[in-house]
Write a structure and sequence with these properties.
This protein is an all-alpha fold. It has one domain. It has 9 helices and no strands. The protein starts with a helix and ends in a 6-residue tail after the last helix.
Amino acid sequence: MVKTLFFLICFVNFGIYGASAEEVTYRRHVKPIFDEKCIGCHGKDSAPEYYAFKEEKEKWLAKGQGMRMDTYSHLIFYTAWPDTGSLMRRLDDGKNTKDGKPGNMYKYLGSTEEERQKNLEIFKKWVGNWTLKRWNEITKEEMNSIKVLY
């Protein structure tokens, strides 16, 4: 009886926690945040492709525009490769950096600290290995632990 009760409690707890541990995906979780918070400066109608931005960086910055990131493929460019960690460096809250300074886009994740932290957590779960490292600094194992599910 005790073993059965213990098993039942474990099973119920696993079911409750397992259901809430849903995998974070671009389509379901990240894109809605991006469309609400980021698309004005990083959407196809306003932002240039990466290399066009780099060629005329000052022009685009003067307009308040960043690189285009409005699709899954574009966002992966700034997460995994070739601009590894760029998204994470810009959205990071700075809590795990030496200087404690947040990334330059962190403030746009929400109008309150609570909202910014909630949205940051979604991005972190989506990425998996939240790294501030660049391509030349990251190990193969670290790269392999970046999830970025569609």
